[in-house]
């Protein structure tokens, strides 16, 4: 059979037809099930489908027609990678207020105002983008969502934003300034890693933890203040920030990861006397300047 189905899950498609009808008893399209099926132009999904797996239709470059039923509750990462023919006239592939992919060519794409989520890798490698304003409906940015948008100089994050996935802005080498809105509680791993021109990062007081490699290789960053509620900073968080000369750490910090300041030869730490950061700096032989807390 061209469709390999096990326990209601499409595991693989081995055919070469342009039209594929999925049986009504199927509840899930498995990971990579239709990957690189370039002959397929139309897929009819069953009305009770619940899940579309990771990379399910990745590489289906000629897929033009795919109506996702309302019953679908989960769509995996990169499910529609390279499915440019499914995009709307503005280049977006959208389902249920989530942008899954952008295939357009605009330097400043206008995301529709009803969008609440940017999916994993949605704008990954969109090197033509220079500026982007996210609408005041966005609550979540997925992992690697804007990674390697190498010419993006500006992104405006809305006050509705609550979650930024790991590596969301990884390798955005033209990005110069970012303001993270109040309400975001964690700076995930690799979020700004490799943003080599990033000079200013404003973090909100809502942030309580900073992940591994969060600001690593931000080689234009010269000074940074960590919010007063942060208690943990992950491994390698500021490594290779070669111009970083002043980092202000609050008394709330009680855990600092391994090799956090590798290749930060100009660094001095500003903190309260007797704080965890004070003793950490002494142990690492990093110059310390005490904050006036009165």
Describe the structure in your own words.
The structure is a single chain. With 294 residues, the chain is mainly beta. The chain has a domain at 1-86: Ribonuclease Inhibitor (Leucine-rich repeat, LRR (right-handed beta-alpha superhelix), Alpha-Beta Horseshoe). It contains 1 helix and 25 strands.
Helix content: under 10%
Compute the gyration radius: what is it?
23 Å
CATH topology of the domain at 1-86: Leucine-rich repeat, LRR (right-handed beta-alpha superhelix)
For the terminal residues, how far apart are their CA atoms? 76 Å
What is the CATH first-level class name of the domain at 1-86?
Alpha Beta
Instruction: Report the sheet-strand fraction.
Output: 15-25%
Q: Which series of helices and strands comes N to C?
A: EEEEEEEEEEEEEEEEEEEEEEEEHE
Structural class: mainly beta
Determine the CATH superfamily of the domain at 1-86: Ribonuclease Inhibitor
Shape-level CATH architecture of the domain at 1-86: Alpha-Beta Horseshoe
What is the average of the pLDDT values?
Answer: 96
What general form does the structure show? elongated
Number of helices: 1
Beta strand count: 25
For the sheet with most strands, the description reads: 5 strands, mixed
Low-confidence segments, given as residue ranges, are: none
Order of strands across the biggest sheet? 1-2-4-6-8
């Amino acid at each position: 059979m061209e469709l390999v189905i096990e326990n209601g899950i499409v595991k693989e498609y081995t055919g070469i037809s342009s039209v594929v009808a999925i049986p009504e008893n199927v509840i899930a399209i498995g990971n990579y099930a239709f990957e690189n099926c370039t002959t397929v132009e139309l897929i009819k999904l069953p009305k009770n489908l619940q899940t579309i797996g990771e990379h399910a239709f990745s590489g289906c470059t000629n897929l033009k027609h795919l109506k996702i039923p309302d019953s679908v509750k989960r769509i995996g990462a990169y499910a529609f990678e390279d499915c440019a023919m499914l995009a709307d006239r503005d280049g977006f592939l959208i389902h249920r207020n989530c942008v899954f992919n952008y295939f357009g060519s605009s330097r400043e794409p206008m995301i529709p105002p009803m969008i609440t989520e940017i999916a994993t890798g949605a704008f990954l490698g969109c090197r033509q983008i220079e500026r982007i304003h996210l609408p005041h409906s966005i609550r979540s940015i997925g992992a690697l969502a804007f990674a390697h948008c190498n010419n993006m100089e500006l992104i405006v994050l809305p006050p509705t934003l609550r979650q930024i996935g790991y590596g969301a802005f990884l390798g955005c080498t033209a990005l110069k300034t970012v303001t993270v809105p109040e309400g975001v509680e964690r700076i995930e791993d690799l979020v700004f890693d490799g943003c080599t021109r990033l000079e200013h990062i404003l973090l909100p007081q809502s942030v309580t933890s900073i992940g591994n490699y969060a600001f690593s290789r931000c080689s234009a960053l010269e000074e940074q203040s960590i919010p007063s509620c942060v208690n943990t900073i992950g491994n390698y968080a500021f490594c290779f920030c070669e111009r970083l000369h002043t980092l202000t750490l609050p008394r709330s910090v009680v855990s600092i990861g391994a090799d956090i300041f590798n290749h930060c030869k100009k660094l001095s730490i500003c903190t309260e006397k007797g704080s965890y950061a004070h003793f950490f700096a002494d142990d690492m032989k990093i110059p310390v300047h005490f904050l006036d807390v009165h």
